[in-house]
Amino acid sequence: MTTDIIKTILLVIVIIAAAAVGLIKGDFFSADQKTSQTKEYDETMAFPSDRYPETAKHIKDAINEGHSEVCTIDRDGAEERREQSLKDVPSKKGYDRDEWPMAMCKEGGEGASVEYISPADNRGAGSWVGHRLTDYPDGTKVLFTIQ
Amino acid sequence: MIKSWKPQELSISYHQFTVFQKDSTPPVMDWTDEAIEKGYAAADGAISFEAQRNTKAFILFRLNSSETVNSYEKKVTVPFHVTENGIHIESIMSKRLSFDLPKGDYQLTCWTVPAEMSDLHADTYIIDAVSV
To answer: Per UniProt, what is the membrane topology (chain B)?
Structure first.
């Protein structure tokens, strides 16, 4: 009888400890659950922060602020969205204006996050993204994560 | 062979557009500070030219043209090899332009003509391919 009680207590302790560890690490709210919560997407893109740190930080900050982490490709609307997102952000010598969500994404446009980024970082990042997405047709939903 | 293609519209993003081999994918370009200073980056048989502004622009492609460009902001010349007949030009996630440039070695010169200097009233990039 006493052994059963001890076993039960130990089991409860193990369950509570596991739950606490899960909460601390954020496992309960990341990965699978987040994926199913957020959205539908067709492809994933792990953006390399070691290669393009400034652009990666901007993407991460913008997503944390509530901007979409999914980009629905829509090439035709890019020009108009870029005009909307940059209208109140003047160009600055020696910097590029990086938008998140990008202008090519349906989620971009007015209200997009815009950050001044060094040209080497931003243009390399653009080339990297273009290389990976160029064959995807309009309408493809791409989930971005920061690696 | 002398040829001039009609101007084609291209939506510029990330201050660049890439000339690359037909039926291939534009490679990842390493835009170092030196590449930005020179106005172009190169990798895997492709060349990316710097574009001044992210906006709709015209690409005017010419082969062995003797016409001069009188007003321009910047001029960049680089060697380029066409491995099979044909090349593409695109910016980041733009539409893809195609030109039936014959296989061979060329000097590519990209003239940047801002909208205020262009007869087309939009940023214009004249690309002269000269056979070598």
So the answer is: Peripheral membrane protein
A98 and A131 belong to one structural domain: yes
| H or E stretch covering A7 | helix A2-25
- ipTM higher than 0.90? yes
- Nearest-Cα distance to chain A for B58, in Å, is 14
Mutate to test the interface with A, among B28, B55, B97 (most CBs of A within 10 A): B28
**Residues contacting residue A73 through CB under 8 Å, at least 6 positions apart:** A104, A105, A106, A133, A136, A137, A138, A139, A140, A141, A142, B93
A32 and A44 assigned to the same domain: no
% of chain A surpassing 90 pLDDT? 73
Domain that holds residue A24: 1-39
Do A92 and A73 share a structural domain? yes
Dihedral (CA of A139, A127, B57, A108) sign = positive
Which chain A residue is nearest to residue B40, measuring alpha carbons? A123
pLDDT, tens digit, 9 for 90 and up, residues A64-94: 999 999 999 999 999 999 999 999 999 999 9
Chain A CB within 8 Å of residue B28 CB: yes
Is residue B29 predicted with pLDDT exceeding 70? yes
Specify the CATH architecture of the domain B1-129: Sandwich (2.60)
Same domain, A68 and A123: yes
Chain A residues near residue B90 by CB distance under 8 angstroms: 134
User: pLDDT band for position A38 (50/70/90)?
Assistant: low
Residue B23, strand partner residues: none
Whole-number percent of chain A with pLDDT over 70? 74
Best CA proximity match to B78, nearest among B48, B104, B114 = B48
Same domain membership, residue A133 and residue A61: yes
Is pLDDT at A20 greater than 60 in this prediction?
no
Do A5 and A53 lie in a common domain?
no
